[in-house]
Task: inverse folding
């Protein structure tokens, strides 16, 4: 099994598309930080949901990873992760190589598991890279400091407007460097796992089609549709069963400086979706006639 | 008699109301080079796919080495396969593709018959080029190389000379003869009847998903087909042959005669001519298998020709 996973990883590593995708997830935090440095936002009301993170980042580079994650998690990270899972089986089928992988004493379950592990590792690495790139470029640009909203940093003597008031809560926030790093790591895990249902859906599609682009777009489409449904108030409590309902809950780590029940809900909500989508993928792939 | 290496028992595959393969039975014994023949749409590729566990049968069973075939069956370790066009990871080189494919099975590259594989591929320095730059013929040769990488006891090849030029086709035929001499059993599908006639010891003929006949190539072509004769007195030969049973037609084909036979051997014709004082200078078979094949696929009645297969 390890050798099978190893060869799947080699296929990903040797692929130019992998490095283009990972290059983009590094590039965006760097670009964002350079823009923040050259043209910092001025304190004051307004500025949208990203503003608190932007203003906090000016105080400490250790908040830049969270800012990058917040900026990119809305769609960019979803696209990159969907690329890896959508490609997993469908690209092999598109090349016509899938049948040659399976004319050996390798069960379909083993091949599927190896491809899933490889895709998940690279998809997760993409989220981690966003944070790492943000950390490096953030510390270089804005320094290694604690987040102290009472101090207010260099932008007006008070907490950044909106920061500490996100998700309807206002409170004083102080986070040490260690806590910021720990929260960043938790945020990476929560974002990656918070998209587990979407990724499982993309992987399921990948077993059903010979079009890797179709499977990847299908996953992104699923995320968008879930997001649209989640914004329809008249759906009532049904919204809380949607896999993206608590997707942004990780921001409480920075906004409220604590683990919240919504984060737990976000994590647990993925489980039934993952089980169903991966179960269908496994069932489909086992009964499928391999002609490509 | 040793147990068959391939055993197909009542194998069927239906796609809705279409019966791609319908209640097929045949066996391939050790050491045979068996050609699976049939017109397009006969179900040859579907049979080979079911044989190696890629396609789930609607009914019946395929057995390899006395084991029922299912996806990932252990017996597949003893089989080298090329089904349809060879395909690879396009952004890896030829040698990287072979190595990665080999290693993904949990085996060390040192255990592969890489020397034979590189010889079969015959790609020279191009083996280090990315596969996406290969022509179809180069991919096909690399596919054959992958099939022989494990020194298989059984080679299952689907139209192995597709996309190859005449020299490459000859090289493939030579390879098949060589591996057969070394004891490898071969099951190959082809629509090139002359190729099957040159390479195969046995044939299985299919049409519309059903078995038409099985047997040795020799028994299938004996007493049938078209033969070409050159004699010293064509007019007299024509008169003698016209009275012989089993001679269907005689056509002038300067400088000789083309004779369509049915149920009579060429040696019987020669004996009749010589016995009547006509000197026979040349005798050659013309498309014996092709004639036999075309005669068979028009008749869907299953019959056995000779033993084996």
Result:
């Amino acid at each position: 099994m390890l050798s099978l996973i190893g060869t799947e990883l080699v296929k990903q590593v040797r692929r130019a598309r992998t490095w283009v995708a990972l290059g983009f997830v590094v590039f965006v935090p760097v670009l964002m930080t350079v823009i923040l440095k050259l043209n910092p936002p001025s304190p004051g009301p307004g500025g949208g949901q990203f503003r608190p993170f932007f203003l906090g980042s000016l105080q400490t580079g250790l908040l830049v990873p969270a800012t990058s994650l917040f900026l990119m998690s809305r769609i960019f990270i979803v696209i990159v992760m969907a690329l890896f899972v959508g490609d997993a089986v469908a690209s092999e089928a598109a090349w016509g190589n899938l049948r040659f992988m399976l004319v050996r004493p390798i069960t379909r379950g083993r091949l599927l598991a190896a491809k899933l592990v490889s895709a998940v590792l690279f998809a997760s690495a993409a989220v981690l890279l966003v944070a790492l790139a943000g950390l490096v470029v953030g510390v270089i640009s804005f320094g290694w400091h604690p987040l102290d909203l009472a101090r207010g940093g260099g932008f007006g003597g008070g907490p950044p407007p909106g920061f500490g008031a996100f998700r309807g809560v206002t409170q004083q926030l102080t986070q040490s460097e260690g806590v910021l790093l720990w929260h960043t790591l938790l945020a990476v895990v929560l974002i990656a796992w918070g998209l587990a249902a979407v990724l499982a859906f993309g992987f399921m599609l990948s077993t059903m089609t010979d079009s890797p682009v179709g499977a990847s777009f299908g996953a992104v489409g699923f995320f968008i549709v879930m997001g649209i449904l989640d914004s329809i108030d008249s759906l009532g409590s049904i919204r809380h069963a949607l896999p993206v309902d608590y997707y942004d809950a990780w921001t409480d780590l920075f906004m409220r400086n604590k683990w919240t029940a919504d984060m737990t809900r976000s994590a647990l909500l993925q489980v039934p979706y993952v089980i169903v989508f991966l179960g269908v993928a496994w069932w489909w792939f086992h009964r499928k006639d391999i002609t490509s | 008699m040793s147990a068959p290496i391939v055993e197909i028992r009542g194998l069927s595959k239906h796609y809705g109301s279409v019966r791609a393969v319908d209640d097929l039975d045949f066996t391939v014994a050790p050491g045979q080079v068996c050609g699976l023949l049939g017109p397009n749409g006969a179900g040859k590729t579907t049979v080979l796919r079911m044989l190696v566990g890629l396609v789930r049968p609607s009914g019946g069973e395929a057995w390899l080495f006395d084991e029922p075939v299912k996806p990932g069956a252990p017996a597949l370790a003893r089989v080298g396969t090329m089904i349809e066009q060879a395909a690879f990871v396009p952004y890896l080189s030829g040698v990287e593709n072979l190595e990665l494919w080999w290693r993904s099975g949990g085996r060390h590259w040192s255990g592969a018959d890489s020397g034979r594989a590189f010889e079969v591929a015959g790609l020279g320095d191009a083996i280090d080029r990315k596969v996406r730059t290969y022509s179809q013929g180069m991919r096909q040769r690399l596919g054959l190389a992958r099939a022989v990488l494990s020194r298989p006891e059984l080679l299952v090849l689907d139209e192995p000379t597709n996309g190859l030029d005449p020299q490459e086709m000859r090289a493939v035929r030579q390879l098949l003869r060589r591996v057969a001499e070394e004891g490898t059993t071969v099951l190959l599908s082809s629509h090139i009847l002359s190729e099957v006639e040159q390479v195969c010891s046995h044939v299985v003929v299919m049409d519309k998903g059903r078995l038409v006949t099985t047997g040795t190539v020799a028994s299938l072509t004996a007493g049938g087909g078209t033969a070409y004769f050159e004699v010293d007195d064509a007019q007299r030969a024509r008169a003698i042959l016209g009275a012989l049973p089993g001679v269907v037609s005689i056509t002038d084909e300067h400088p000789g005669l083309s004779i369509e036979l049915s149920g009579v051997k060429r040696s019987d014709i020669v004996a009749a001519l010589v016995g009547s004082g006509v000197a026979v200078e040349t005798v050659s078979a013309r498309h014996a298998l092709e004639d036999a094949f075309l005669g068979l696929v028009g008749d869907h009645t299953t019959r056995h020709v000779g033993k084996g297969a």
In short: Chain B is about 30% helix and 30% strand. Residues 299-309 of chain B have pLDDT under 50 and may be disordered. Residues 227 and 266 of chain B are 7 Å apart (CA to CA).
